[in-house]
Task: structure prediction
Amino acid sequence: MRKWLLALAATALGSVSLAQGKLEIFSWWAGDEGPALQALLDLYKKKYPNVEVVNATVTGGSGVNARAVLKTRMLGGDPPDSFQVHAGQELIGTWVVAGRMEDLTSLYKSEGWMTRFPKGLIDLLSYNGGIWSVPVNIHRSNVMWYNPAKLREWGVTPPKTWTEFLSTCATLKSKGVEAPLALGEAWTQQHLWESVALGVLGPDNWAALWSGKLKFNDPKAIAVWDTFGKVLDCANKDASGLSWQQATDRVVQGQSAFNIMGDWAAGYMATTLKLKPGEGFGWAPSPSTSGTFMMLSDSFGLPKGVKNRTNVINWLKLLGSKEGQDTFNPLKGSIAARTDSDLSKYNAYLQSAAKDWKSNKIVGSLVHGAVAPESFSSQFGTVMEIYLSSKNAKAAANAAQAIADQVRLGR
Amino acid sequence: MKWLRNLDSLVAVLTLLPSVILLAIFVYGFIGQTIQTSLTNWGKDPAQALAINPVLQFVGLENYKELFSGFIHGRFRQDLVNNLFFTVFFVGGCLLVGLSLAIILDRGPKGEGFFRTVFLFPMSLSFIVTGTIWRWMLQPAGGVNQLPAAVGLPEGHFAWLTSRQQVLQFDWNHLPLFTAWLIGLILLWIGISALRNAQARRGWIAVGSAALLIGWAIFIGPRVQLLPFPEIHGFNLAFIGIIIAAIWQMSGYTMALYLAGLRGVPEELREAARVDGASEVQLYRHIIFPMLAPITLSAMIILGHISLKIFDLIWAMTGVDNAPTEVPALLMYVTTFRSNKIADGAAIATILLLLVALVIVPYLYSQLKSEVRR
Result:
């Protein structure tokens, strides 16, 4: 019925592109992110003018609504040709284990991507001997943002470790800063947790946590919660009423000194608030994580049994190409996953992020789907709630381990 | 003639058939499927959760047992407690505000029609709109908290939607105990009133079961442990803001119900009472309020099932991820569509259905009975 309607619409518009079928791209890129996607689609259109590209966008930040729609479509037997998903376990633990995706290793080999993408990234995309999606961009999760002018005024420097952070926090509180750390709604609290955990555990133990080698109720992992509790004491009490932008605003306006947020905050401050990177806002790796790049990435895969397989392969080739990534990312406010991208197209913050991307150790983000399957990350909210309501590190750690066992994390 | 009557009934059957079939499939069939799903392990194994042909195993009531006494399902239990508190305060608040407004309007102030429209207006908005408006007003650093500043008083600091404070706390392990006491006392009351009405058999059965339950509550109940650890639940203060918004939305409707009831009280009755020397307070207490009892019951049923199913208002006001203000309906969505734990989600949905049925079915039953009698 829909096909028929579309065909009718195409004829009515006098379109002649009947030869190559169509390509439906399912994503949650709307609003600020829409133009970046459109640039990619235009590029595809230019290369394959006979393919009808359908932009099936479901709005809602970080895909909260899109994922539910995607599930009903997949379960209902109407998969989109290619869908956006956070690279790593969000795809693997949900769709790959269910046998819904095609292995893309041969595409990686024929396009020469094995050497173009960093090894740490390819490891995150691999499972059971296959590589499962093509990353189009990279965001960094472990960044601490601050307001350089205010820090000079208060006479403090950006802390390098969590211990230093806590003493800086005490100093700021004694100077009358009510909440040195600005925090927002539920997922940003989990976002803070992952930066604390990476700092306390270090990159190797962080990775071990997700491969199941380090248990959540190991003393090392329980220590994360203790530090997290102390860090929370530095944060505002009305957190759950604020969006991440509002939390960032508090730093910009000088009410708070620091905010831990992914590097889309740079896009917000540079583009929306028109602040100059390095002057209007400053950044540093979140405490104790210098030399480590906690990444998250948007990617597309190839669902089994799609109607327009060739078109999807062409789309994936475009996504992974240097041209595709450098068209998309400067507009999106992220960096290319490829290590050979043309840095002159990016702003000052992104250039510094790209430099770290090439040299740092790469680990995946929990909240943004890289290291844990959806079934774990969405239940992590329950773990967080146990900690916040009881302040009992051990209870939270035990709950996390129970959920990890249940979803067979790392297996 | 007989043939014609058969044709009549044939037409009647044919007319009703489509809706009966549709109802059977899309309401009762799907309820059945949800219950069936809730008895499987769909979603426990991520490899099967979203597979094309998932292999499911029947696990009986395992999911329900987990929800009520499992280690990682504390969030569900808190949600259930949240929903019960919300229901009590929301229904109580609506009845109180609705009745007060109705009494004021019933006394025929100037511009009654205008006020009636104003009070009824919030009902024309959807909960999403109400929620959005009230979220703005209850922002921690704005809206209501800044009102006192307008007249020179210090700003308020109440965390309307973000508080993590709890009051009226109790341990989940005591739940069977409380339930036994509550049902025991209700049965006792039923039994005694039956005995007073000289319904001996019914009365003694009720008193007997009450004695059993209360005896259990006294001697065995205190030692029952649902969980291997204490789990404290209570009423989250962050709900106050949501309750205010919900009452704002629905009290106009309650007012309309009560106003209709008040207008139905015959004027002669009021006059007769006045002639007999009843004061205005006595008039309301002994004449008018008893006559409003059936309306109170209808309002409680309607408001009660709305509040048990509440989803959109909370979604709009504090979001789907904010555990302190979460209710089972939101958790059902998160469990099913985010965590892919489809059987658990179905179990939560079934529990919600049972709760709503608990409110609605006795009402429908009594309605049906009175209709038959007529």
